[in-house]
Structure formats: structure tokens, C-alpha cells
Specification:
By secondary structure, this protein is an alpha+beta fold. It is built from 6 helices and 5 strands. It has a 5-stranded mixed sheet. Helix 3 runs antiparallel to helix 5. It starts with a strand and ends with a strand.
Length: about 110
């Protein structure tokens, strides 16, 4: 999975433990124990993480009602800012169609 530099640095520093994505066909195949390679979109650096939990939600907002914002975007993160950023990346139509998936990971 590709991550913008900010998100990549947070996840590799273990300050971000949950990745929020659309619950599309590719993500529907994920299971606990699977490994994900995260790649920094700017540098191409890669890091490996193990999926330790999955939770499906109807929207990013619903996911962030259940998952602490700090787990998704690091300490001091704001729920509404995260939702707005995710909607600019994925679009509201995609979010409404697919729903959201909270992927809890552990760096390996």
C-alpha cells in the first residue's frame, strides 16, 4: 500500500497503528496474519507490517467514532481533519459505495 510521506513516517515510527482505507475488493481479501508492504510515495522506501485486526465501517466518520484518532494519525490528531483528508483522497461517492476498513497493523 502506498502512503504519503507523513503517514509513512508515522506508521514506521509506530505512532500510527491503524490504516484507514476503502473497503474495496482488494482490501476485502485481507485477513489477520497477512503482511502488507507500505511504500513511501516520495522516496519509494518500504516497510513491512502484519495485519493484526480488521474492522469494517459504513464510513470514515463512523470508523473514527470507534477508533482513536491518535491510532490513525498520531498523537494530537483531529478526527474531523482526518475524515476531510480521507474524503479528498477517495471521494465521498467511493466512501458511500464501499465503506471504510480500519486495518490494525504491527510493524515487523
Amino acid at each position: 500500500m502506498r502512503l504519503r510521506p507523513r503517514w509513512y513516517e508515522l506508521i514506521t515510527a509506530r505512532r500510527k497503528t491503524v490504516e484507514l482505507r476503502l473497503h474495496d475488493q482488494r482490501r476485502a481479501a485481507l485477513r489477520p496474519g497477512h503482511c502488507i508492504t507500505f511504500a513511501n510515495t516520495d522516496t519509494g522506501r518500504q516497510a513491512l507490517a502484519e495485519v493484526v485486526g480488521l474492522r469494517r465501517f459504513r464510513s470514515f466518520a463512523a470508523a473514527l467514532d470507534a477508533v482513536p484518532a491518535a491510532a490513525v494519525a498520531g498523537p494530537g490528531a483531529d478526527r474531523d481533519d482526518i475524515v476531510a483528508e480521507l474524503r479528498t483522497i477517495y471521494g465521498t461517492v467511493n466512501e458511500e459505495h464501499h465503506g471504510a476498513l480500519a486495518i490494525t497493523v504491527r510493524m515487523v
